[in-house]
Amino acid sequence: MKRKFHLLVGIFTDENLQKAIEAMYNGITIRESCRRYSIPRATLQDRIKARIANKPRQIGPDSYLSAENEKKVVNWIINLAKCGFPVKKCKLISTIQKIVLDQKIKTPFKDGKTSQKWYSSFLHRHSQIFTRTSESIDKSRAKFTEEYINFL
């Protein structure tokens, strides 16, 4: 039988949560604070009583690479793209595999090689990186360079 309800996860912002907690400390009741900032009462109570750490929410498991390693990979991809050498999917996967094997990071990947899901999640986590489709140009258009245009 199909579920008749939807799981509402993260329907509020962290800013509203902080405002609700501050309002609680300023004397507003929990119920009023929940209504004002659209936060579930149980969530607010858990945060106030420190049952849940007051840190940014993350749904799902942690990334297999550390944030520092991912940042290095992102900068590497961006720098190569600026130089005119885009990183293809297979090159990125082999680079990640080398990092995982060199640093002996425990991952569920076979031989340290990442999966398609990890690749798509990586692109989703880092929105400044995206795939582009190349387009072939005519030989006559390719010969036009900035020097040739300035010469005319």
UniProtKB/TrEMBL annotation:
Compartment(s) of residence: Nucleus
InterPro entries on file: Homeodomain-like_sf, HTH_CenpB_DNA-bd_dom, HTH_Psq
GO cellular component: nucleus
Top-level taxon of the source organism: Eukaryota
Keywords assigned: DNA-binding, Nucleus
PROSITE patterns: HTH_CENPB
Any GO molecular function: DNA binding
Domain HTH CENPB-type positions: 57-132
Identification of the protein by name: HTH CENPB-type domain-containing protein
Taxonomic placement: Eukaryota, Metazoa, Ecdysozoa, Arthropoda, Hexapoda
